[in-house]
Amino acid sequence: MTIAFDYPWLLLIVPILLWLVYRRRQELAHKEFPDRLSALVRVGVLALVILALTGPKIATFISKHYVVFAVDLSESTGASQDPQTLIDFIKASAPADERTSYSVITFGEKPYIESNFAPKPKLPKLQFLTSPPANGTDIAAAIRLALQTFPKDGTKEIVLMTDGRASQGDLDSALAQARAQGVTIHTIPVGLSEKPEFWVDQLSLPEEVALNLPFQILIKVGATQKGSGQLLLYRDHKPILDETVKLERGVTTFDLPDKLEESGSHQYQIVLKPTHDQIADNNKLDAVVRAVGGAEVLLVGSSSEANLPARRLLSEAGYRVEERALENFGLSLAALASYRAVILNDVPLRNLQASQLDALRNYLRDLGGGLFLLQGQRALKEFEDRSIEELLPVTYETPEPSQIPGVALVLVLDRSSSMSERAGSDSKINLLKLAATKGIEILDLRDYAGVVAFDTEMDWIVPLKEIDDKEYYYRKINGLRAGGGTDFYSALESAFAELDKTRSHIKHIMLFTDGKSDKDRPFEAFLGRLEKSSITLSTVAIDTEPDLELLQKLADAGHGKLYEVRDASELPAISLREIRRISRLRWIPGVNAVQASPASQLVRDKELAGLPAVEGYALTYEKPTAESWLRVQSTGDPLLSSWRYGLGQVAVLNTDLEGAGSAQWLKWPSLSKVLGQVMARIYRTSNEDGQLGVYTRIENGHLEITADVQKNHRWEQGLEVAGSLSSSEGDSQPIALKQIAPGRWRGVVENLSPGSHVLKISARSGQEVVGEREKTVTLPYPEELRRIGTDQETLSKIAAQTGGVYLETPKFQPHVGISAVVAYREIWVEVLLLALALFLLDLGLRKIPLRQG
User: Fold this and answer.
1) Are 333 and 362 in contact (CB under 8 A)?
2) Do 269 and 251 touch, CB atoms closer than 8 A?
């Protein structure tokens, strides 16, 4: 038997304890026997406690070792096509050993036990007996099943043979469970990475298009290696494309134009016929487009002359346009209801009334309309009320600047005696001077800046003027010395007065202080003037002494921010952040190159050949759920963005179409095509009454249907909402939806086959039909077949997190990574129990009056 310790150095205390007993041997010799025995028992208790703290363990040799081979037979591995290779590998990797037992698990969407533990794996000659569902991969479930089959004692290993591409399951949780049980997992790559595999990754079309108007068909083809194949596109079962294409490793994108001359639903199918391939089921996808006649677009502008370029471009794209001037059009919901899309062509956003915004909101959210906002300098001029921002895929809130435009800035700096205190390795006044110089450093030489310092008095260290010599500012700021009391009212009044008579697009005061100002000063009157002015103000509270209530009021009235800085070393960073925040203009002039977003599915490289620059753009920031198709190349700022709002779609172009920011764009031949694609995206669908909206979501072969029903803009209750789902083969099944919320019903159809299905949903109140909707749903092949190739990162992660080995070559020997079959059992509990027993014995010895003789 071998004993090991976690903290053997603690055993050094035992000799010290024995030495102390030895030193007191004479004293103990004169004591009576019970006292000597009690002392020895106490020494034993202490020794046992020390022994328990060392973490003692008894090593025992275990005679049994267990290995589970977990084999991935999902479709993405292609293993089911050649099971004999895997069977031969398992047999070769499981030599007969009286101490070792082997088990085999197969898995796909679910795991199954192929053979139980035995000295040799019990496997058939040609194929596995179990057939797990191959349309998915659940590695976590396979690991959990293996953990459940292991006996309690013995060492345990899992040999995981997979491509690492799980389509479901919580892998991290399963790995944590394996670590907790001390199970090692080795990984062996199995898949199609070394074999040519090609698949149709995506077929994307608009759900609905206007009759005789062009639209784009987006096709993406995936490949594990370079190759070629025949690409065929069918419309209504008739070929419209037959082309031999070259395919690169990864994803290759094809973009095809089309237009429909007959109304109704049209079925498209893309088929790939590669030269070499392993899986045929992932070589085709279906989609359906509904064509509706009569393009109806409302173009709202400042004047007919201003609308000329937009009207011409929309006409070239095939849209019939009706023009209205904003001042002569009410933009009521009743007026908007007859239009499929509304374009606001650089109209002054400040002139939009609350009632007009409400009408646009309801038009988008409830009627499923489309809104396209073109915003140039005219739209943004004197624009302060950002109520329209709720509808847009972009925000005007400035997270960080991309450039520093014209600014008039006054820094109001506290030089009171408390600023001489230390803050870390430096004084607060020195850190404040550094913050002020950093702020001046990032301003443009053409900006205006002034510096005011205060204690109980105030002085203009640098008067408000154009920055033409930053070194002059640095010298003046670095000359500040701390001393005196705190009163910043006069400094703020003087800064406000100077800014009020200064012409600048942005006027801002930044106050730094670590103290409290005299409250008897007329701050209320100052706050009133500040709130009504165009001057903004932010405050920086240093340390814990400032009057936060007053500083917050100043920041609120000045439409600025309050920064609470406990560590003065943060002042330079705060100064930089705040000055950048207030420095950005909404309209950025100058020539800026434009690029398409890599994720854009609206406009493709062919359409964007020779994409010109813009001469100016509206500065906005993309919202989290928005999609930006075009961006400014130098900054990444969105130029063309869209998102869904309620039932409708909204797009924003951050420049005008009159020439101020788009002179080169107006000469670009593809501009009308790009605008046409934007219009196709936002165009309202045929559910014109907005009473019944049907939405679908497909996941793991299941179709989730959600129906929203309203009448007279009120959510309906107690209706019968039902329908049917018909496949392209003619099979039909009824669908009943259950109400889950006011105006909302939901239903699920499980185990759908890939292909096109026609969904019909109706909502009834007795005999009255409240709404009907028909749409086509296309179910792609399983996600399992879209994830091809070995995920080496996942396989390495599984092995690393469980102490195993990632075996890139299919070679395995049992006990990989295990130097000896040894198990340790902790005995510190038993040692403590023995110490407790001795302690109780000591108590007994004190109570029982034992005497010699």
Assistant:
1) yes
2) no
Three-class DSSP category at 831: helix
Q: What is the CATH number of domain 692-779?
A: 2.60.40.10
CB-based contact 451:494 (threshold 8 Å) = no
- Name the fold adopted by 63-190+790-819: Rossmann fold (3.40.50)
628-684 pLDDT, tens digit each: 889 888 667 899 999 999 878 999 999 998 877 788 888 888 888 888 888 888 887
**What is the rounded CA–CA span in Å between residue 485 and residue 266?**
81
Listed residue (352, 367, 293, 178) closest to 800, CA to CA: 178
CA distance 134 to 82: 14
Of 679, 665, 661, 613, which Cα lies nearest the Cα of 376? 661
Listed residue (749, 750, 612, 719) closest to 668, CA to CA: 612
Q: Please, what's the largest Cα pairwise distance for the chain?
A: 128
**Judging by beta carbons within 10 Å of its beta carbon (0-12, 13-18, 19+), is residue 605 exposed, middle or buried?**
exposed
Q: Which residues pair with 288 in a beta bridge?
A: 267
Cα 26 to Cα 32, 224, 842, distances in angstroms: 12, 86, 21
CA distances from 338 to 295, 324, 363, 370 (A): 11, 14, 10, 12
Residue 206 near residue 836, CB atoms below 8 Å: no
Residue-level pLDDT at 730: 53
Beta-ladder partners of 709: 692
Inter-residue contact 474 to 451 (CB < 8 Å): no
Give mean pLDDT, residues 704-726: 83
Burial (CB < 10 A; 0-12, 13-18, 19+), residue 234, is: middle
- Give CA–CA dist 808/791, Å, rounded: 12
pLDDT at 543: 86
- Statement: residue 350 has pLDDT above 50: yes
Q: Is the pLDDT of residue 70 over 90?
A: yes
pLDDT digits (tens, 9 = 90+) for 240-268: 899 998 988 888 888 888 988 776 668 88
Same topology for domains 297-400+587-682 and 408-583, yes or no? yes
Fold type of domain 198-289: Immunoglobulin-like (2.60.40)
Tell how strand 65-72 and strand 198-204 pair up: unpaired
Burial 573-584 (b: 16+ CB within 10 A, else e): ebbeebbbbbbb
Pick the closest to residue 806 from 793, 792, 796 (CA basis): 796
C-alpha to C-alpha distance for 810 and 192, rounded to whole angstroms: 14
If one compares 547 and 752, the residue with the highest pLDDT of the two is 547
Q: Return the SS3 of 256.
A: strand
Which residues lie closer than 8 Å to 277 by C-beta, 6 or more apart? 196, 197, 198, 229, 283
408-583 has CATH 3.90.10.10 classification:
no
Q: 3-state DSSP call for residue 589?
A: strand
Q: Kindly compute the dihedral angle of the four CA atoms of residues 806, 808, 810, 813, in this order, to the nearest 10 degrees.
A: -40
CATH 3.90.650.10 fits 297-400+587-682, yes or no: no
Q: Spell out the domain ranges in the chain.
A: 2-60+826-847, 63-190+790-819, 198-289, 297-400+587-682, 408-583, 692-779
